[in-house]
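Lab notebook, bench 4. Still working through the backlog of constructs that have no structural model yet. Next entry is a single chain of 259 residues. Request: give me the structure tokens for it.
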Amino acid sequence: MSHVTSGGCPIYYRTDGDPRAPALLFSNSLGTTHELWEPQLAAFSKSFRVIRYDTRGHGRSGAPDGEYTIGQLGGDAIAVLDAVGVSRAHICGLSLGGLTAMWLGVHVAERIESLTLASTGAKIATSAYWRERIEQIKREGLASIAEGAKGRWFSDAFRSAHPDVVERHVRMLVAGPAGGYIGCCAALRDTDLRDEIGAIVAPTLVVGAADDPVTPPANAELMKARIPNAELAILEGSHIANAEQADRFNEHLLRFLNG
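Model written out:
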């Protein structure tokens, strides 16, 4: 567990598994932390060097004032890899983390072994949506979106069966700094990689969720169509697919990485 400074911002990271094993970097979604990936840790640290970090503005990472860019978020991921001495890594990102992974695949292809793009999109929602979200957080704080996050992140059936898991994720959201959340909303507002992802050369797995209202299956299908030779898996459930469908998610990711 440590920090690396990226563009003046401390980025928190931790590693698990054999340092000699292939590196697998996980990138979290908006409103969560590296703890998002707990359902993957045991399965992947057996054969990979698992690297998790808190996206700028989240968790134990710094939350500089102002708006962030996708280039900054991508630079933070590279700073983490540099800090642990990894020249090339498999990258798995969910939602905002998936968008960051796509940026890496386009701009620093030489550092990428493969990409897994989960519950994400080359353009996530509309710019107007993110402007409205920013204004809401400025007015009312992160607690104002906590209840709505439950419905966006998890299906009704999962919320009923696993309220403890749902509450754990919501705690990540409300514990975060509002300014950091807003900074990342600005990156989502301004990022549209739909015309760039055709340049990705890394092997790519796209994972969508059938009932995801945040990044619906159409997003996954567009990425599959535009990224050369990408594979596509659509799971049941909603946005936080790595938790709601942990076994199926791990199965697809392990098969892809070991293929």
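Notes after review: The beta strands are 2-6, 9-16, 23-27, 49-53, 89-94, 112-118, 204-209, 231-235. The mean pLDDT is 98. Flag for follow-up if needed.
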